[in-house]
Request: fold
Amino acid sequence: MNLSRFRTGRLAVCATVVVAAACAAWTADAVSSSAASAGCSVDYTVSSQWSGGFTASVAITNLGSTVNSWALTWNFTAGQQVTQGWNATYSQSGTQVSAVSESYNGDLGPGGSTTIGFNGSWNNSANPAPASFALNGVTCTGGTTSSPTPTPTPTPTPTPTPTGSLPSSFTWTSSGVVISPHSDSHNIIAVKDPSVVNYNGEWYVAASTVSSSGAYGMEFLSFSNWSQAASAVPVYADQTAIGGGYKTAPQLFYVAPQKLWYVIYQMGSNIGYSTNPNVDNPSGWSATQTFYSGMPSIISQNIGSGYWVDSWVICDSANCYLFSMDDNGHLYRSQTSLSSFPNGMSQPVIAASNSTPSNFFEADNVYKVAGQNEYLLIVEAINSAGHRYFTSYTSNAINGSWTPLANTQGNPFIAASNVTFGSGAAWTQDFSSGEMIRSGYDQTLTISPCNIQYLFQGDAPGSYSNYNAIPWRIGLVTQANSTC
Reply:
């Protein structure tokens, strides 16, 4: 949660005819001061394709003189439409598509190159590559190469074979601090709200940052094992197309049918997301797009003096669900079809609530329990001493009702009262916003009920002038009473 002002980013895709016309006018302005390139080459690749949709990347090489901004244009001949893009601002009118450079990739010297990408729709009968491209109105004389359209072969998350179930009470052991603020010019005093996946043997963490001025942002880390986490050098969101401003509390996951990584995050008055075809390239995140046109009315009507925080996506075989909370006792849920995600998100409904906000506060996680017809909801609460702890609930459906599991101060999911520290004194009494270690990394967010681990934010015991001054660090708890 942040108490600072909120800002939102502009959308990167122009989808309707009216908006496309406006973007086309902006495109002309954007390139008018830049001389047309004398030549270019393009490598167009369809990296994944599924029923009704596909993902493509476009590598552009400038073969002419230096340009300070550019517009790449092409024609689709089989009714394809761009639905979402990154590393460029897209517009489409009929068959013609225009992709205009962003501020960070507009400069292309002789031989310089950049790569853009997009998600598109197709009619399931043909998806041919464009026959030619033009850069600033000049046909790419260096030629166009295209990779064959792949046969859809989504790789599912490996299914674990657990032999246990979730207990009705939990005990844990905690590590020491595993991730702290990196010492650099960003002047970070807190790292918090971690989201984590393990992919191809590498750990990837997206986390919130708080600077000495109280400004919120995000960082991306990767490392091979947890002993390397403390020394991992972050890439900050303001070093990517995501940019600066209030964007925080990330969730990281992979949408397998699209073969595309997503990071979603709170923005105060909206929920944002960015995409990346390669999670191992932290600089490859796209510019911010949003799920809603603005704060939904049900949020503004129920938020009271709280804040709209902690977005969370989980999908089943048919739909994707977007959860969020308001620091005022309400859990919200929206949904869209898996085939449409991230587009078409419905207006939220209240999925669960508590008349005492401190008992049902923020930091919502929802997971599929492997081997069980069960979903697990984790929610952060505040105890009578003012310390943060986690509560838990279960349901047999993502959009079902939630039954308490371990959800009281006397029987918490994770709290100071049921956590021991392997060595040394307890470094925190607060267990706050974090992420379960998943069995896989895709949109189903599957966890094993065996030997659960949870990455959390904790703080050194003490008193602080305000929430934004708390020096949060990241630790890892491991379940000590597994039923497996």
